[in-house]
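Example (one chain per record):
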Amino acid sequence: MDKASILGVVLGCVMVLAAVILGGSITMFVNIQGILIVLGGTVGAISIAFPTNELRQITSVSRRVFHEPGDEIRSIVGFLEEGLLALKKDGPLGLEKMASNAPTEPLRKGLMLIADGARASTIRQILQTEQIQMEKHHRAGQKIFAEAGKFAPAFGMVGTLIGLVQMLANLDDPSAIGPAMAVALLTTFYGAVMANVLFLPMVTKLDRRIHIEAVQIQLTVVGLESIHVGDSRALLHEKVNGFLVEQHGHHGKNVAKAA
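Predicted structure:
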């Protein structure tokens, strides 16, 4: 689990609740009518805006936000180095034996393709196609959360208008003005909190996850091509150095040795 994502959600909710409690009773900020307007409206709008097959991706894409990616760049580089040595020592059979332990699915698939005698251009094409499909899948889920971040505040304003209409319609009844005004203000509050504590941060985190996975596949392709042509270990390190510098912020040779 990604501790930063969990901490961010918890911290955001706790800070908002703390501010509410310090200002009075928390029950003042609980309004069922307002919750139904914002939450129900947002869910309904999302259901209209996206087809069912894309809505089914919400769960799997949400996991990407709270999944800790770990140091997979190091793992990939280390495994590429092992694959290079295995191919030189035991031939294609050595790659086939170790492929099942690969840290990522594209790397496992690439090693198996080399073991099966596939051309380097074929391996690149297959993995790049896989990258495109993976990105499409994640972008579809990301778009849902981005739109939810727009719909939630919009339905907050809808709730505000409903509350104001109810208030103006009952000006002759002072006891009805307070509840109507509460709906007007709290729906805006609910929409803003949902958008800025949950939906929009998830969009940003998913964008980062998509970038990381794209870099991993690019690194995998470069490393597999190096294995395919029989490069030396030192040349393999030079080819992947740029990916290591991007990930860790220092020279890749030291990182590669650590792997």
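Caption: DSSP finds eleven helices and no strands in the chain.
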